Amino acid sequence: MKIIAEKMAKTRELFTVAFMLLLFLITGLINPSFLAGDNLLLCFNGSVIYILLAIGVSFVITTGDIDVSVGATMGFTAAVCATLIRDGSSLMTAVVSAVAIGAVIGLINGLGVTKLRIPAIIMTLGINGVVRGSIYVYTQGKWVENLPAVFKSYGQISLFGFVNLFLLGTVLIVVGTYLYLHRARKGKYFAAIGDNIGGATLIGIPVDRVRITAFVLSGVFAAIAGVVFASKVGFVTPTAGNGYEMKAIAACVLGGVSLTGGVGSVIGAMFGAVIMSSISRILVFLQFSSNWDDTITGILLIIIVVADALIQTHLKEKARKERLAARDLKAQSHFEEKEVLAG
Amino acid sequence: MSTLKSLDWKKGILRWEAALILILVLEIIIFGSINPRFLKVPVLLGSINDYISICIIALFATIVMITGGIDISGGAIVGLTSMVLGLLWQDAGLNIWAAMGLCLVTGILCGALNGFLVSYVGVQAMVVTLGGLFLYSGLAVVLSTLSVSSAYEGISGFPEAFIRIAGGKVFGIVPNPFVIFIILTVIAYILLHKSRFGRYVFLVGVNPNAAGFSGINYKLVAMFTYIFSGLAASVAGVVLTSYLGSCRADLGSGLTMPIVTAVVLGGTAITGGKGSIAGTALAAIVIGLLRFGLQMSGMSTQYLDIPVGLLLIVAVAARGAGVYMHRIQYSSKKEKSCQTET
Amino acid sequence: MGLSNDDRTQTPAISINGISKSFATNVVLRKINLDVYQGEVVALIGGNGAGKSTLMKILMGIYQPDGGEIHISGKKVNLCSPSAALSNGIYLVPQEPMLFPNMTVEENIVLGFQEKRAELRLRLEALIENLGWDLKLDRKAESLSIAEQQLVEILRGLLRNSKILILDEPTSALTFHEIESLFRIITDLHSNGISIFYITHRLTEVFDIATRVVVLRDGQITMEGSVGQFNQEMLIQGLLPTNYERAAIRKEEAVSDKKRKSKKPMLEIKDFGGYGFSNVNLEVYPGEILGLAGVVGAGRTELAVTIFGKDLVKQGAVILDGEEITGRKSKQIIEKGLIYVPEDRHLNGIYSMRDVEENVTSGVLGHLNKYFIDRKKSRELTDRYIKDFRIKVTGRDQITGSLSGGNQQKVVLAKALATNPKVVILDEPTRGIDAGARGDVYRIIHELKQQGVAVLLISSDIEEVIELSDRVAAMYQGRINHTFEENEITVDNLMSASFGVYQKEETA
Amino acid sequence: GGTDEVSDEGTAEPSDISVAFIPKLTGNSFFESANLGAQDIAEEVGFECAYTGNPEASVANQVQVINSAVQQGFSALAISSVTPDGLNNALKAAKEAGLKIVCWDSDVQNDMRSLHVAQGTPEQLGEMLVEMAAMQMTDEQKQSAKYCWHYSSATVTDQNSWQVAGEKYIKETYPGWVNVAPDNYYSGQDAEKAVSVGESILKTYPDIDAIICNDSTALPGQAQAAENLGLSGKDVIITGFCTPNGMRDFCKNGTVPVFGLWDCKVQGAMGAYLAYWLAAGNEFKVGDTIDIPTIGEVEVLPNTVLDPKAYTADDSGVVLLPERTIFTKDNIDDYNF
Ligand SMILES: Nc1ncnc2c1ncn2[C@@H]1O[C@H](COP(=O)(O)OP(=O)(O)OP(=O)(O)O)[C@@H](O)[C@H]1O
Ligand SMILES: Nc1ncnc2c1ncn2[C@@H]1O[C@H](COP(=O)(O)OP(=O)(O)OP(=O)(O)O)[C@@H](O)[C@H]1O
Ligand SMILES: [Mg+2]
Ligand SMILES: [Mg+2]
Predict the structure, then answer these.
(1) pLDDT tens sequence across C171-213
(2) Quick check: C427 pLDDT over 80?
(3) Which of ligand 1's atoms lies nearest the C-alpha of C405?
(4) At residue B342, does pLDDT exceed 50?
(5) Chain A residues close to B136, C-beta within 8 Å
(6) Which of A229, A290, C239, C319 satisfies CB 3.0 to 4.6 Å to A78 for a cystine?
(7) What's the confidence (pLDDT) of residue C256?
(8) Is pLDDT above 80 for A4?
């Protein structure tokens, strides 16, 4: 048990998973129908948009920057994709356009942050405003509605009878990125830059290029989220994605991605996103008023980060003390030896 | 061996504030020529009503940011304190001034919770206040459902004296919020630039470890900055409630980003250690007037984010490129492009 | 070890031609010309701020020169970024460690390599084995002490297989043992034809490993030649400012045992224990300098920091001037009259972005005024210290981060001493500062002594300990091994006590 | 501001008069459609009509929009208010500056405006919502249906007033019905959240009979949720208010065979025109009829038609929209807004 606890504290993702299971379990105790297999799947299916946003943002956060423009990017790309589909473009064209737009927005963010040296929060805040305004310009303030049924049905496609296509795709992406970031030689560059950008420069990591890549990926993932949004929700309002950036960041934090950079994984971000997006569902099952949504989100967020902070500080202190005590022990045995010799 | 000209960055800040004033003047000239009504003194002064809460909160959020933290929960505290005020007054039957006092206490408590978690528990400020953002705005909604008047009706009918806090005018022209803003700016200025506490704020922002070794209770200092910020947000809550004559849970929604924008545009470093009250105060007005002026010139509100976003990027890029050129060079961390020479 | 003149006919491994660099108005390098041949170990010495690190950072592609050219093996290169430098076989071990705190030691070392991981690990293990350093590869870098960080940085450099290796003050935090093994490796490398730049402030090291000496002053090379042409005295002369008169540090007669006993100790540490040390008994008398010697990791910093109220006390007591201060908060301890000057200047000492005045007064603001800042008093105080300590500044409003290392150290000392302490604990007070500044710091320490302040001096530089201390306690693995009276203080004694092998005469 | 800023009354040409047409929020299909109506009539009559609002529906934002409209020198406001009383100060200032104030869709305190163009009384709309659900039920269901409400939030005025009226109507007419969630479900005008809340409702109450979505984001979201779970209109009754364009597919494929709305284009047109009409110097008394080009004659009713306790005065009244429409697959293609 203790070993599990320690392992959990060390592998931050496990902590998030445990927290999620606990949350699900408590909900299930109160309302068993929550734990029905297809409902849990629904919970995960419904998290796909947040997961995609969180993965994208986690790249940027890992390099020590931040991206608060993903909500707007998602809204914009969703609107573009939906408009194209509605007007009869092929799926391919729509997806490629959306992803290209996401990439361009990311590129602009990345260039602003690295070449113009604008702090990331400022750059992406500014771009957030510009993109959000552009949605109104692009849609002329109107909803994009009446998307063809085929397009909307992609969200319902199940493989092997129960695995949702989008969910499967997303999980594959998460696993792929995880392996890249933690196993590939260059994948580590992201975390290295977030950890110590000066050190990363010194050992020849192409810092600017990697940071720009992170922003581009963030934009691309937001764009994919936009496409999924258009398909799953079936209509796009000009306010789509409002406030999602904060939720995506919160999901990362819940999943143990440190905002100071260098720490965390996309797996953690994924489960953080599942928690974030399940809260409103859980409240329905608990027959709690939706008025409590934000309160509960806030409390969960604070509890989990406080618990995490306390555990981490405790572990660090413990490790330090053990190391120092070990030195002392050595000293003791040494002294004893000497005494034995002397005696 | 000559070293860096020490005065340079102070001059930089000064120059930056001058630049902000320049932008302000430009705004007045441009918008004035588009719509001459913009130049009327009551119109110009009165416009502050629409962004007073950003001004008030940004002043004190600056102090938080100088310690190297950030407070994004200010907007949520505005809504929460507005609800607390209304509930205490209407449902608990408290005297309006007593209710107002308790509402300020609420702001202090929210700030204290933020500060405690950041300073003493060691959670990153962005994360804590993000949690606070959800928590406080959520609580405001929950509180609004507790009132006898249904949430959607809001609470209104406040006494005239309370309405006058934001509704009144000094000498018949200067709206009270403007006066409140000036007073708070002076207070924040003295607090940050003249007091011992303010000096500690800078030192903690530059190097908390060193502050600890200098015998400064850096955790307490940092915690207090959040308390001030929470208090400022509750003042904004009172002013806004008085101005609208109605308590609403969503009063502060959408303030988060403008507040951060004002602080950063004012020249405060996101990494802490430097910044100024005058800069923030000017930047808040620059942004407020920009939005107001564009609206006056006929631009639809939904497009306003575009020019404001661009201004932010351009201004910060220009500042980075110009005034801070040598400082950027100083930070050895940056890569240089390969095009220089062959 | 110097190369014969025949070798000079070959093309230099690296040739620096007319490199200049200035930051804003500050001219740091003036047309530097330097050729370094294969297998040379070039000791680059010079005062703080002479431009050594700047020159090396240009070679590493971190800074771009304002003018001049660099040739490697006769070919002109454009070192526009560290990766360009790396691909030209250059590697810099920086002065300030730049590790990735959240990665393990191993990841820190191997990141950025193109080789297979397994191979790298084998090579790394072999290297550490060869050096005999005690470093766990799976430790997180953030838990490393400054000395251990420096070890990791050096390992990174050594593993790189570079043709030109630059070591910027690699030994400033290291002690005898590590330095010795490092020198062994450097000797190996240089016999394998690798060119090495070696920057140091410790002149003895120059004679230990360098084949050539280059003295840099105010951005110009003022002396250059094979190491055999110089002796230590000449180097010191070459380093000191032209009009510098060496502060005559005449060692006062040590407070004799009897004289001491007649006084009350100012600081008394009784059976003191905490994390990393235990059973420490020490007494420091007014007007006495007690040296604390030991190797890296002996626990001296922990002892000092625990006395200062920053870590948990496990046992024992600290008595300051008759009053017990065990386990109090740092703030109260400072008020009682004890101050600690931390070893890591950048991490714990200075507020680099603020001006000198703010730094100097940071510990005493409460005494200047209760709520508001009394600018007049604070200016006077700052000016006094700038004058007394000969801090080289353009004014009291100069940004501290822009001062040279030695002057930063003086600011740290001024900041500490402004609190009017009765006891000062100095932890590595001269790390990384040049001979001139070092003399100034020694002078300051002596003045403290004359004023009757009790000084506890922690230093890894044995010569420094010997030169300054009235008595020396040696710490080994968290215990005080032995305390030496003035007449017993010798390099041998201190060294053996630091390594835990000192045998008291009576037991011998 | 002083009164000297008022345009010369009575003699005004239509083109001198400008109306600020203010929605609760921009970017919502309902308000965008209303604006189309307003723009059409403005062009027809020849006055200037500016559509100005904030993408986020909040009191502070709307006050800002009003203030700026006043400062820009508009002659009248046609406004759909986000709050019954939070705009009072701003409207008072507008009135003092000489602007005429007309509300549409969502009202303010009655003494703050001259006219309100109502889509109907809360009772009418509440009853309509409930009846749209009831008409799809079997007789058995009508006795003991389980139902709930799903709309934007507890803080919006009109949707809550319809819900309250609807609840009252259910108590009287269908006493056997059970509201499974008396606290209601809210999705805050977030389409994605509407879908996920919608799915959870259907999962939590698999045997629910009807979900009433009196919000134009909640209705398509809830419909999409039902489709996601493979449910159709036969399994669960989903109905509510939305524009026909937003629901066309759901209506045709049987997920939401019946839903309703009033003609918001007409409502927008009436709001904008009446604002213009007042600014042009015209006056009215309760009981008068006003002729609106392309729409016809409307009668000014006393405020008490909406709320028996309401304030009454000669210069403050309500104009009701002639009709509300129930859309089914048979008639939906006749509408395009
Ligand atoms: N990035 C920079 N921006 C501005 N000035 C700089 C920068 N880096 C160094 N300097 C200045 O250049 C001069 C030389 O610094 P450098 O670090 O090269 O000295 P050094 O010889 O390495 O000294 P030390 O022995 O203290 O390490 C100093 O005056 C320093 O203040
Ligand atoms: N910045 C730091 N963060 C965490 N732990 C540290 C840090 N600095 C030092 N330590 C811990 O303190 C221990 C002691 O550091 P160090 O090697 O300087 O020992 P010391 O006892 O101070 O040695 P010395 O006798 O040389 O002063 C290290 O082993 C390290 O674990
Ligand atoms: Mg150097
Ligand atoms: Mg030490």
Answers:
(1) 877 777 788 888 888 888 888 888 999 998 888 888 888 999 9
(2) yes
(3) 26
(4) no
(5) 298
(6) A229
(7) 57
(8) no
Q: What is the dihedral of CA D199, D202, D204, D206, to 10 degrees?
A: -150
Q: For residues B83 and B103, what is the distance between their CA atoms, to the nearest angstrom?
A: 9
Q: What is the ipTM score, two decimals? A: 0.86
Pocket of ligand 1 contains residue C105 by CB under 6 Å: no
Question: Is residue B231's pLDDT more than 90?
Answer: yes
* DSSP string for residues in D102-137: EEESS---GGG-SEEEESS-HHHHHHHHHHHHHTTS
- Judge whether B179 and B164 are in contact, CB under 8 Å: no
Average pLDDT, chain A: 87
Buried/exposed code over C351-378 (b: 16+ C-beta within 10 A; e: otherwise): bbbbbbbbbbbbbbbeebeeeebbeeeb
Rounded to the nearest 5 percent, the helix, strand and coil shares of chain B are: 75, 5, 25
Please check the confidence at residue C41 and state whether its pLDDT lies above 50. Answer: yes
User: Among C112, C177, C470, C473, which residue's Cα sits nearest to residue C303?
Assistant: C473
- SS (HEC) of A252-283: HHHCCCCCCCCCCCHHHHHHHHHHHHHHHHHH
What are the pLDDT digits (tens) for A45-101? 889 999 999 999 999 999 999 999 999 999 999 999 999 999 988 999 999 999 999
C345 Cα: distance to centroid of ligand 4 (angstroms): 12
Which one, of D27, D30, D110, D26, lies nearest residue D65 by Cα?
D26
For residue C32, the cross-strand partners are: C19
Ligand of minimum distance to the alpha carbon of B8? 1
Q: How far apart are CA B123 and CA B117, in angstroms?
A: 6
* Shortest CA gap B167–chain A (Å): 31
pLDDT at residue B326 greater than cutoff 50:
no
**Span from the CA of C358 to the centroid of ligand 1 (angstroms):** 22
**Position B56: which residue type?**
I
- In terms of Cβ atoms closer than 10 Å to its own Cβ (0-12, 13-18, 19+), residue A109 is buried
Residues with CB under 6 A from ligand 2: A 320, 323; C 143, 145, 147, 294, 296-302, 458, 460
The DSSP call for residue C143 is: G
- C-alpha C428/C-alpha A301 separation (Å) is 43
Instruction: Give the torsion sign (CA, B144, B145, B147, B152).
Output: positive
For the ranges B128-142, C455-469, D107-121, D307-321, the one whose mean pLDDT is highest: B128-142
Facing residue for B49 by CB, picked from D27, D61, D67: D67
Helix ranges (H only) for B47-116 are: 52-66, 74-86, 96-116
Nearest ligand to the C-alpha atom of residue C403:
1
Res A207: pLDDT: 93
Calculate what percentage of chain B has a pLDDT beyond 70: 88
Q: What are the C-alpha distances in Å from A260 to residues A256, B71, B203?
A: 11, 16, 20
CA B24-B26-B32 angle, 5° bins: 100
Which tokens is C157 given?
A: 């450099």
* Chain B residues in contact with A299 (beta carbon < 8 A): 131, 135
Q: Do C84 and B338 touch (CB under 8 A)?
A: yes
**Looking at residues A287-292, what average pLDDT do you find?**
83
How far apart are the CA of A316 and the nearest CA of chain C, in angstroms?
A: 8
B4 in ligand 1 pocket by Cβ < 6 Å? yes
C54: Cβ below 6 Å to ligand 1? yes
The residue assigned the tokens 């445990």 is A18
Nearest to A141 among D32, D181, D249 (CB): D32
D73–B37 C-beta distance less than 8 A: yes
Contact D58 B145 (CB under 8 A): no
Q: Considering only CA atoms, which of C126, C456, C3, C475 is closest in space to residue C268?
A: C456
Reported as a single tens digit per residue, the pLDDT across C451-498 is 899 999 999 888 889 889 999 999 988 888 889 988 888 888 888 888
Task: List CB contacts (< 8 A) between B322 and chain A.
Answer: none
